[in-house]
Amino acid sequence: MNKTLKKNIGLLHLWLGLASGLIVFIVALTGSILVFEDELDEFFNPEFYKVASIGEEKMPVDGIISDMKEDFHLKKIDRVHSFYDPERTLLISATDLDKKKQLFSIDPYTGKVLASILAERRFFSIVLDLHRHLVLGDFGQAITGISCLIFVFMLLSGLVLWWPKKIKNLKQRLTVKWGASFKRVNWDFHSTFGFYTFLVLLIISLTGLTWSYDWVEDGVYLLADGTTNKKSAKVENPTKIDPEGDKTFFYQSIFSKTDSVFKYKGDTQIRIPSDTINSILVIKMNLEKDIPNIASLAYFDKYTGEIVEARPYESFSNGDKVRRLIYPIHTGSIYGYPTKILAFLVCLFALTLPITGLLIWLGRKKKSK
Predict the structure, then answer these.
(1) pLDDT tens for residues 224-276?
(2) For a FRET experiment, which of 43, 52, 59, 255 has its CA 20 to 30 Å from that of 203?
(3) What is the residue extent of each domain of the chain?
(4) End-to-end CA distance of the chain
(5) For 199-231, what is each residue's pLDDT tens digit?
(6) Edge-to-edge order in the sheet of strand 90-96
(7) Where are the alpha helices (DSSP H) in the chain?
(8) How far, CA to CA in Å, does 196 sit from each of 222, 335, 336, 348, 366?
(9) CA nearest neighbour of 199 among 160, 156, 164, 169
(10) pTM of the complete model
């Protein structure tokens, strides 16, 4: 490579790294925590995950919801999440009269509310908001999106800078000379482990861009389907006016109808639309698959509870299937604990990159003086 070009790449690598270092540190730190979100949350908040004892039969969901609305003065039910595991609690998200979102954990056998919390105060809600938006809303999302793009460039430019001029120097670039000076060890640590983690960090960064930029998601569909015209995740509700009728088993019938359409073992989530236009969306995760986030969708009339449309996973386009894989790939849960541990370690290393990079710059600055 041209010496001048490599020098310019090095300067860009340096200054862009210094500019985005703090954001990269925050995103990498929160990302490493989110890798084990389920495990950590269950450890610290078991009341949201496990019942004290398994009963003979679960109560109808509608009776539980009716009592909750009255006891907690709830304005609207947003989501109802039922699990295949008999030890799991029933999770219900709702909006109260103050328009605040609350999460409730209920014993499905007794109907007793085991715990509740404002959604915005959940530790992992705060961590996720910090990870995606820096707790700054759309402005923060723009910053993390730009920083992620910069980080992709940093990875690619870092590989260029790491690449040895001669093959005989390759061994030196693949090892850390632990017995050398701190300055040398710091440089080796930054560049050598940067090379070893390059591919995983690149995959995590590229998949992360789908939450920041629509054009990245469109690119996924274009590559997979040959078009950016993806099927809408919403279906308009056929019934325009709420008819009079008995709705004693409204939500319970939706769960039953979903199980009759999708007969595999799975966790089921009912999502009630916040508007007056769209139907209820039901997502049933397939626990019989080795890969997570494989799910089928069903849409129900939000007034009558009748099924409007069923979309089994097998009917998804290639783009939809790839899109559903992006989350488990990004979080490292794609193949369970082996990939989770790998993602966790790689994220921990990523948060050291701005620090070791800054020390390299300070060392060169001191030398130049």
Answers:
(1) 999 988 888 899 999 999 888 778 899 999 999 999 999 999 999 999 999 98
(2) 43
(3) 3-39+126-227+333-368
(4) 29
(5) 999 999 999 999 999 999 999 999 999 998 888
(6) 113-118, 101-106, 90-96, 74-82, 268-271, 280-285, 295-300, 307-311
(7) 3-35, 37-44, 61-72, 123-133, 137-162, 170-173, 182-196, 198-208, 214-225, 250-261, 318-331, 337-368
(8) 31, 20, 21, 14, 29
(9) 156
(10) 0.92
User: Strand pairing of 307-311 and 295-300?
Assistant: antiparallel
* Paired strand residues for 270: 80, 282
Place of tokens 């860009």: 12
Taking only the tens place, the pLDDT of each residue in 7-53 is: 899 999 999 999 999 999 999 999 999 999 999 999 999 999 999 99
Q: What is the largest CA-CA distance in the chain?
A: 83
Chain Cα centroid distance, residue 305: 30
How many whole angstroms separate alpha carbon 88 and alpha carbon 286? 16
As a dihedral over the C-alpha atoms of residue 77, residue 83, residue 87, residue 91, rounded to 10 degrees, the angle is -20
The whole-number pLDDT of residue 164 equals 87
Structure tokens at 325: 């894989």
Question: What is the residue-wise DSSP string for 216-243?
Answer: HHHHHHHHHHSSS-PPPS--B-S--S--
Q: Does pLDDT of 367 surpass 70?
A: no
Structure tokens at 344: 């966790």
Q: Are 35 and 328 in contact (CB under 8 A)?
A: no
For the record, the structure tokens of 261 come out as 């359409």
Euclidean distance between CA atoms 82 and 68, whole angstroms:
16
* Closest C-alpha to 233, from 287, 279, 284: 279
Q: Can you tell me the distance from the alpha carbon of 93 to that of 85, in angstroms, rounded to the nearest whole number?
A: 19
Nearest Cα neighbor of 276 from 243, 306, 249, 239 is 239
